[in-house]
Amino acid sequence: MTDVALASPLPEVPPSIQQLLAQLNLAYRPVPATTRQPQANRVHTVLLSDSVGMLLVLLPENQLLDLRRLVEFTGRQLAVVAPERLMRTLERYELDVLPGLPSLTNSPCLYDERLLEAPRLLLESGERSLLLEVETSDYRCLLSQATAGSFGIPAAGIQPNLRQPERDEAEILHAATAFTARRIRQRLEETLEIPPLSKTAEKVIKLRVDPDATVDDLANVVETDPALAAQVISWAASPYYAAPGKIRSVEDAIVRVLGFDLVINLALGLALGKTLSLPSDQAQQETPYWKQAIYTAALIEGLARAMPRAERPEMGLAYLGGLLHNFGYLVLAHVFPPHFSLICRHLEANRQLDHQVIEHHLLGITREQIGAALMRCWEMPEEVVTALRFQGDPAYQGEQAVYPNLIFLAVQLLRGEGIGNGPAQAIPEDLYARLNIDPAKARECMQKILGAEAALRELTGQFK
Predict the structure, then answer these.
(1) Residue limits of the HDOD domain (predicted)?
(2) What is the pLDDT of residues 304-341, one digit of tens each?
(3) 414-464: per-residue pLDDT in tens?
(4) What is the location of CATH 3.90.960.10 in the chain?
(5) Burial 299-311 (b: 16+ CB within 10 A, else e)
């Protein structure tokens, strides 16, 4: 922690919590909440419900709440309460987040027995940037009416395959056999029953590798797909690009506003993204798929321009990687529909953990693995395959590392502002150094995205 952070005054503990802690006679010490890895002594609080009623569940933050174990332990089909119901509880006490205090919700409480192994615990205070440190012996007294159990999975023991893509096909096929009754075929795309590429996507891919392709060629391809043509024109006419005059045609959008490179990668990203439909089920309070895609691509474009000119990646491919970075999410929903719902419920109950940990625990693979595998099946550029496959590993330094490194940086910056899904991880200093991006410049790029939020929201609104 920096000296500046140490010198910053701590926010106040919410009055309702101060009053409750005084009634409980629980001594505490306020400490700042910082971005870090999940901790064994930080209490993860989840409010669940079913037809019987609500249940407060407490476990160490560095453990994954396994809902299947919870079913075995309680005999109840519990799921995270609806956001509206939780919001009513928080508003009643004027809180931002729910502290791990059973008497606050007046509902039965279940806690993982390993929670009490640490000598001191960190509780949510109700204020996002503030934690409460308490003695475990004192906290134990609050749990006298609660039930102890063992239903968490140590997250450190769940090891997603971050760096061995040569194992991806075997792991994906294993997951497919374990979770479907389909006969295993020789080819990956047949096994997963992925739809073929659209004619538009095939034409755009051919243009991408044609060194002699012209604006006319691209305009002709886009115009054969009326929906895509309308989106490209709307894109160019949006406030985000602030183009002078009216955009009258696809060619006008390419020449005057967007440029050949952006349009060809935008067209490809949109065509691929619409190959698979958005899942009907999703985790509560998730950032919508297309919003996450567009914000990430836009931020990556800014971050890449902040790099020294000689070290910048190919801008179009960097943008395309951002647009497709979460494509594996759509693939998981398509390949494992009955189990995708289970993934969503676990994402809701384990917001302190990255999706890779949850997906690997439940399926044995991650969206990064399956998304990259499909990109390779579709013969997409190796830069895009690498971008999707290694985006979750900030330490990746292999070939074309700049593409996944930029996605990791953009995703974490966005998560820090509440855009995206999952906890914001600390961004390693050596990642900034390898990309040759000044952290202050990166924050400046993030602020530009936030400043253009209304315009980006309008772009996102085109995708439903």
Answers:
(1) 194-394
(2) 999 999 999 988 889 999 999 999 999 888 888 778 99
(3) 999 999 999 999 999 999 999 999 999 999 999 999 998 888 887 787 665
(4) 3-156
(5) bbbbbbebbeeee
pLDDT at 178: 67
Question: pTM score, two decimals?
Answer: 0.84
Question: pLDDT tens digits, residue range 357-367?
Answer: 999 999 899 99
CA angle 32, 35, 38 (to 5 degrees): 100
Which residue spans of the chain are classified as CATH 1.10.3210.10?
A: 165-195+276-460
**Yes or no: is domain 3-156 CATH 3.90.960.10?**
yes
Q: What is the pLDDT of residue 252?
A: 85
Q: Which CATH superfamily is domain 165-195+276-460 in?
A: Hypothetical protein af1432 (1.10.3210.10)
Contact residues for 460 (Cβ-Cβ < 8 A; gap 6+): 288, 290, 291, 294, 295
In the predicted model, what is the mean pLDDT of the chain? 88
pLDDT-derived band at 1, boundaries 50, 70, 90: very low
**In the predicted model, is pLDDT for residue 31 greater than 90?**
yes
- Give the whole-angstrom CA distance, residue 366 versus residue 329: 9
